Amino acid sequence: MPLEHLGAAVRELNDLRGCVEQIVRDPRWSALEWRAACMPVMLRVPRIRQSLAQLALIRASQWPDTGWAVRLCAARDDVERRLLDISLSMSALACKETSTADAVADFSSDGIKLAEAVDELSSLIVSRYPAAADGV
Amino acid sequence: VHSRDEHEGAPAPGGISRDGLTGQLAELESTLINVLRPIDDDARLMDANLEDAHKIASEIGSIIKHKVLGPLALLDPSAYREDREAFEGARVDEKDMYEVYADDLERHRKRQRKNLSVAESDSDKIALVKRRRAYIFALQTFQVQTSEILSSMRGGFSRPE
């Protein structure tokens, strides 16, 4: 896998984390506001999925640094699951006219977990391939 | 103390030299050890690496079963009966535990999407943790048995009659 792909993945991940953290910090209460606020995240999801698919090529059975590949697979898997969770939370918020406190709490919790998972994955890539952070 | 009777110098089936086959197996075993190392620190890492770990084990299992311990294979099957049985037991355990763990993991992930009660969620997690532990143990046992076979291939040990 070319280093540029890892660099692109790191950039996408950091970008997504920034967007998610910003929404979590500043919750809204109407569906219209939520839809607008979540748009940057929704727009990034396809690119993030593409990056995750690229990272899925890194397998413990094939990568030279097996231990790192084992950790990377787990971190990537975690981001995929958290991404699915937050997609569901976003849909719940954007579909109802007014947001319930529970739905907002769910979104915040999912957002924080996604940001943590993304940070873990990005850090793991940069710790092994520091050049991937260039241009971030 | 007698060295085990090995088919010294005999080419392994499939046209691979004995050294080539030993090297191939050693490399796979080393990958398996490297997979197990971080998992020993954090067992949850196994969830995302299950397919790969099982793939490596299957490759090792196939090589040993057909090229190392099978009929007309590298090591004399009659002299290595105990090793073969121990290895076969570990191989079957790994496969069985994989099947159960993979099913549980899939079910757990599907159920995570539903609104489970705290009790249901805890019960799911406990079941998964047990399956995961059982699989890791089976994989570790399989790796130890592989290591034994590799020692025999290298002619590294002998056994009293």
Features:
heterodimer, A: mainly alpha, B: 161 residues, mainly alpha, 4 helices, 2 strands, disordered C terminus
Largest interface: A-B, 15 and 18 residues
Which strand order does the major sheet of chain B show?
Answer: 1-2
Oligomer: heterodimer
- Helix proportion of chain A: over 70%
Distance between the termini of chain B: 7 Å
The dominant shape of chain B is elongated
Written as H for each helix and E for each strand, in order along the chain, the element string of chain A is HHHH
Question: What is the succession of H and E elements of chain B?
Answer: EHHHHE
Describe what this molecule looks like in 3D:
The complex is a heterodimer of chains A (136) and B (161). With 136 residues, chain A is mostly helical. Chain A is built from four helices and no strands. Helix content of chain B is 72%, strand content 2%. Chain B is built from four helices and two strands; from the N terminus they run E-H-H-H-H-E. Chain B is mainly alpha-helical and 161 residues long. The A-B interface holds A 59-61, 66-67, 70-71, 73-74, 76-78, 81, 84, 88 and B 31, 34-35, 37-39, 44-45, 47-49, 52-53, 55-56, 109, 112-113.
Q: Briefly, what is this?
A:
The complex is a heterodimer of chains A (136) and B (161). With 136 residues, chain A is mostly helical.
Any chance you could write out the topology, listing elements then pairs?
The complex is a heterodimer of chains A (136) and B (161).
Chain A: H1 3-25, H2 31-55, H3 66-95, H4 101-128
Chain B: E1 2-3, H1 18-41, H2 45-68, H3 81-112, H4 118-153, E2 158-159
Antiparallel strand pairs in B: 1-2
Helix pairs in contact in B: 1-2, 1-4, 2-3, 2-4, 3-4
